[in-house]
Amino acid sequence: MSVLELKNIYKSFGDTQVLRDVSFSVNKGDVVAIIGKSGAGKTTMLRIMNYLIPPDSGEVYFHNSKVILDRKVLRTVRSKIGFVFQRFNLIRHLTALDNVAIGLVKVKGLKWPQARELALKKLKEVDLANRVNHYPSQLSGGQQQRVGIARALAMEPDLILFDEPTSALDPSLVGEVMTVIKRLSASGITMVVVTHEMSFAKNIANRLVYMEEGQIIYDTTPEQFFLSNDKRVRHFLNDFLEAV
Amino acid sequence: MRRNFARVLSISLFLVIAAVIYFSLSKVYPFNWTVIARYSKLFIDGILMTLKISGFSLGLSLTIGMLVALARVSRIDFFNELGTLYVWFFRNMPLLVIILLVYYGMGSVLNIDRFLAGVISLSLFEGAYVAEIFRAGIEAVPPGEIEAGAALGFYNHQIMGSIILPQAFRISIPPLIGQLISLVKDSSLVSVIALGDITMRARQIGTQTLATLEAYLVLAGIYLLMTSTLSILGRYLERRLAIP
Ligand SMILES: Nc1ncnc2c1ncn2[C@@H]1O[C@H](COP(=O)(O)OP(=O)(O)OP(=O)(O)O)[C@@H](O)[C@H]1O
Ligand SMILES: [Mg+2]
């Protein structure tokens, strides 16, 4: 059962073609890891999925209905797709609690007290019950990212997109965020994670997408990918091991 | 920093008082303070008028400034250009000329009174500067936070109202306080249309009593007092509203 589908997506920024004929489908319960070199187009692909940027050509389908550039349609689609950013993007003038609650108020129409009650529950799920009244600047990167995850969760999305959720973090803080993401994947939430964490790609994801120069080269299982003899894949993995 | 400022202030106040006493006693200049004291009621009337003009102009120039700033960041070209034209015109026109144009132009056509003419001129003029302050504040909001709102499904006006403006406003407070102080000082120019503000009253008292310099020294002291009070209030407000 397809939750989200990309069909023949093309995207250029000025003269540089960033995505070339990308087709891809996420099914309910999938945990997809997207990997690839810097500049391969991973972030761009993720942002096209919730239409933060529209494609030049090609279509996006959410639950088999076509996403179009219409404010009501985008509002509905985006409210059901969580997005977790590399740099957290919490709203600076709101506390952790209100960062999580505001989507419920502004998009789902809840009253603030109910929204905050729900937000508190979600913050507990990411182990932040004792940080609800802190402002983003008073939280560590790992804590900010967990607020970001709680913010996405609170909307009860059908799908969560993660864009390198741990790559802006101090190595010592990666663990606490990965723990939360692993817990979510085990709970059956559908998710697409752009990541450089090979252990996640290998052990947690059930699908692995490998991108190069704006194209999906592999869309397979992690086992098959990591055993592949393809030169490009071996190169990528070798470079990666050296970098670590 | 603040301690230095306080020291410089007290030393200069001391010097001014010492100079006034010296010149009063040494008869270099025949100071006549007693006659000035008899006109204190007129001074107070003038202060109240200056405060009233400044207060109304503050409200109106904030409104104008906000509207023009929104026009300047709007995606609609027409509004954009209108906003740019406004700022260009009023920042390149001496306030005195605006006052004369509004009073003799609008005044004779629409039959508005002096007070309204003064408030409108000041607001039109200061509004252009306020607009630039708000625009800078709006543009200083991190794009990632705007994107986070979009990803949650916010409408554009909700992003503006709940994410951009609350932060833009806080960012704008320090320069706005500076602008408010300019406004109080600039309001002295409305004395040319015989609007009984403090500058006009001082001139009046000077001509009536022939203690001209005395009247203007009092006037200078009153402006310093008003503007320093605003600085202190502004710093308090800034601290109260700061985002942790
Ligand atoms: N808004 C934009 N304007 C112009 N060029 C862009 C824009 N966004 C991305 N690009 C370019 O598109 C290409 C792909 O970028 P993208 O961010 O999708 O890569 P990525 O795979 O996510 O890389 P990374 O691992 O570094 O995050 C890059 O060459 C980048 O410079
Ligand atoms: Mg990226």
Topology (SSEs and partners):
The complex is a heterodimer of chains A (244) and B (244).
Chain A: E1 2-13, E2 16-27, E3 31-36, H1 42-49, E4 57-62, E5 65-66, H2 71-79, E6 81-84, H3 96-106, H4 112-125, H5 141-154, E7 159-163, H6 171-186, E8 191-194, H7 198-203, E9 207-212, E10 215-220, H8 222-227, H9 231-243
Parallel strand pairs in A: 3-8, 3-9, 6-7, 7-8
Antiparallel strand pairs in A: 1-2, 1-4, 4-5, 9-10
Chain B: H1 2-26, H2 33-37, H3 40-73, H4 77-91, H5 95-110, H6 114-139, H7 143-152, H8 156-186, H9 198-209, H10 212-241
The complex binds adenosine-5'-triphosphate and magnesium ion.
Describe the structure.
- The complex is a heterodimer of chains A (244) and B (244).
- Chain A has nine helices and ten strands.
- Chain A is 40% helix and 26% strand.
- With 244 residues, chain A is α/β, with parallel strands linked by helices.
- The longest helix of chain A has 16 residues, at 171-186.
- The N and C termini of chain A lie far apart (37 Å).
- Chain A has a six-stranded mixed sheet with strand order 6-7-8-3-9-10, with helices on both faces. Chain A has a four-stranded antiparallel sheet with strand order 2-1-4-5, with helices on one face.
- Chain A has a domain at 71-79 and 87-157.
- In chain A, helix 3 crosses helix 4 (112-125) and helix 3 (96-106) packs parallel to helix 5.
- The radius of gyration of chain A is 18 Å and the shape is globular.
- In chain A, strand 1 (2-13) and strand 2 (16-27) form a beta hairpin.
- Chain B contains ten helices and no strands.
- The mean pLDDT of chain B is 92.
- In chain B, helix 3 (40-73) runs antiparallel to helix 4, helix 3 (40-73) packs across helix 6 and helix 4 packs across helix 6.
- Chain B is flat, with a radius of gyration of 22 Å.
- Helices cover 84% and strands 0% of the residues of chain B.
- The longest helix of chain B is centred in the N-terminal third of the chain and has 34 residues, at 40-73.
- Chain B has a single domain, classed as MetI-like (MetI-like fold).
- Chain B is an all-alpha fold and 244 residues long.
- Classes of the chains: A alpha/beta (244), B mainly alpha (244).
- Chains A and B meet through helix 2, strand 6 and helix 3 of A and helix 7 and helix 8 of B.
- Bound molecules: adenosine-5'-triphosphate (ATP) and magnesium ion.
- Adenosine-5'-triphosphate is lined by residues 13, 16, 18, 36, 38-44 of chain A.
